[in-house]
Specification:
76 residues; alpha+beta; 3 strands
């Protein structure tokens, strides 16, 4: 959408087609969402997890990842 917004002054047929594809995608993924809710059995509303793999044998590179949750929904 950000890329398409720059063509609003002078859109072409290609831009209109791309916009229709984006709108169809959004319409088809309405049910995919992140739900934030309070969990009565959890004391902490915010939770964080992290993982790291040092020097992967296949590529020789280290990798890391993390996720922070708020009310059972990912925020980062």
């Amino acid at each position: 959408m950000n890329r398409l917004a720059s063509y609003t002054a002078n859109p072409s047929l290609q831009h209109t087609t791309a916009l229709k594809q984006v709108l169809r995608y959004l319409n088809g993924t309405k049910s995919h969402c992140i739900t934030y809710k309070a969990l009565p059995d959890k004391v902490d509303f915010f939770t964080g997890y992290a993982d790291a793999a040092y020097t992967n044998t296949d590529e020789g590179q280290s990798m890391t990842g993390y996720v922070f949750l708020a009310g059972d929904g990912a925020i980062t």
